[in-house]
Amino acid sequence: MSYDRAITVFSPDGHLFQVEYAMEAVRRGSTAVGVRGGDCVVLAVERRALAKLQDPRTIRKIVSIDERSTLAFAGLTADARVLVNKTRVEAQSYRLTCEDAPSVEYLARFIARTQQKYTQRGGVRPFGIANLLAGFSDPEGEGDEGKPVLYQTDPAGTHSSWKAQVIGGRNAKSLREFLEKNYEDDMSEEKSVRLAVQALLEVVDSGAKNMEVCVIRKGGVKVTMEESELDVIVKDIEEEAEEGKTGKSSASGDE
Fold it and tell me: What are φ and ψ of residue 126, in 5° steps?
């Protein structure tokens, strides 16, 4: 029997093949990196090469859900559009009911719940996307603006909180190891942006031109970095790498 034909049928060894194929669609997508700093969250995505006559503004991998939440995705863009619209409607519905903005955790749970529904019913297929959802937690007292938070959801419908995470692309595992080695708690905005860009440079060929970086600051302020700003960071990282190589080669020469 072909266990990958029906979404609702488990294989004898406990696999849901359609969900695993959806995860493969994510791996074939472009890379997205999320880094949680001390007072910000940085989302950075790889922008695949565009056709010469295509308007780059129509291809967005980082989108706003609500004034407090920003989402980056990897996988099928059409699936992402549908899921983003569902989440935006839920955010507006929450505002009408509760007269307050939904928390990032609430929206992460909603996205995960929606993705999970599409793994358990006949006649549908799983969403072929994984998401990174960034923002700030609910304020705990007067004068508190909340703490930066980063959540991930996947096609199976699980959601989890992260300090730094990579989704999409063939090199996600090695990039995650790179983040594990270089991540520090309570990093400044400058360090967080640098770490995210450094991770993306492992997979992006033409530097700042093929990157999109968004910084979410306190109060839900979202700043998309200009290509010229990213270019400065990329050159700085490349110069540092060159110096490291020359330092190593001169040390081995002295020996």
Answer: -65, 155
Q: How far apart are CA 95 and CA 215, in angstroms?
A: 24
Could you tell me the two tokens for 246?
């020359």
Segment (H or E) for 44? strand 40-46
pTM for the predicted model, two decimal places? 0.90
Which residues contact residue 229 at a Cβ distance below 8 angstroms, ignoring those fewer than 6 apart? none
- CA-to-CA separations, 130 to 24, 53, 76, 169, in angstroms, rounded: 11, 29, 9, 11
What is the arrangement of strands in the sheet containing 211-217, beginning at the earlier edge strand?
164-167, 32-36, 40-46, 211-217, 221-224
Q: What one-letter code names the amino acid at 134?
A: A
Partnered with residue 136 across adjacent β-strands are: 148
Q: What is the pLDDT of residue 249?
A: 62
Given a contact cutoff of 8 angstroms between Cβ atoms, the answer to whether 150 and 215 are in contact is no
Tokens matching residue 150? 């980063």
Question: Splitting the chain (255 residues) into consecutive groups of 10 residues, what average pLDDT does each group show?
Answer: 77 89 94 94 89 83 93 95 97 95 95 95 91 90 81 96 94 93 93 94 82 90 91 89 72 57
One-letter amino acid identity for 174?
S
Q: Are 132 and 111 in contact (CB under 8 A)?
A: no
* Helix/strand/coil percent split, the chain, to 5: 45, 20, 35
Are 194 and 208 in contact by the 8 Å Cβ rule? The answer is no
Residue 153: both structure tokens together: 């959801």
CA distance 125 to 18: 7
Residue 66's SS3 state is strand
